[in-house]
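[User]
Um, tokens okay?
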Amino acid sequence: MNDKKTMLIQSAMKLFGERDYHTTSVQDIVNLAGVSKGAFYQHFPSKEELLFSIFNHHFERVHTELREAESNPHLTPRDLLIRGILVQCQLILENKNFLCMLVKGTAFTEKAISEVMTRESLEMARWFQKRIIELYGPDIEAHSMDCASMLHGCLKEYFFFFIFCNYPIDGTKLAGYLVERLDDLVEGIRRKRPTPILQSALEPLDQVYQTDKQRLESLTEHIELRIRSHQPDTQTAHTMLQTLETIVAELQKEQPSAIIIQGLYNYLLTLAKQDEQLIQLLKTAFDSRIPHHAG
């Protein structure tokens, strides 16, 4: 990103946070950035496109940091969860103007931006959910979205104190503290065995805010996680994961083969045996996607 574009984004965030999106003009933004209107329109066709760029820039940074953390073989599941919380803290606390925009509701005054925010919130919740299952094991899976939701909610409340009360937040300490509280929460769930609240409540939202490709990727992740956490035989689990990978690869071809996909799918269902939840995930992912006219 070049200097002028960065200056425009930073200036817009400051003004959107101090005032709001609607009362801030393009002229206000270029005046603060110290560039011409021509320079603005070289980078952004409209103020709305600038707003999109701000959110995309922020979320791309989040995704990049999380991918780097996931690829680090030295991080334990606990370390990875703490790192994910810390990423959220650092990017928000380092950019108070972006947080001001969120608090003022800038994200939700424009429908398209609102949809982006909702999708990103769901993706973050799913990321936390996956880490929670990896850390605490399959017995907490039914409650994993409730845990992820409470974790994410607590994080947002600390951001509230940071922006409205100017309370200093140490991201590293907060990340460790929240995971310790998550330990307490999971211990309570295991002891009392309550009925989960969000066990399947987010599935309809996934269907609204994800493209078909994103839905398949999300379902594939859930299937992989289910296989790894519930298949006791290592060799069978490896075979199932390879079969799943082959099905997805075939589906992504320009002319996928229905015969190959159907055969692999049936084989995967056979290996799933009595795991009803895994079988349901497989049917949701592939029943409607198997092509009927392919060679």
Observations:
- Residues 48-192 form a domain with the Tetracycline Repressor; domain 2 fold (CATH 1.10.357.10).
- The chain has a mean pLDDT of 84.
- Residues 177 and 185 are 13 Å apart (CA to CA).
- Residues 111-136 form the longest helix (26 residues).
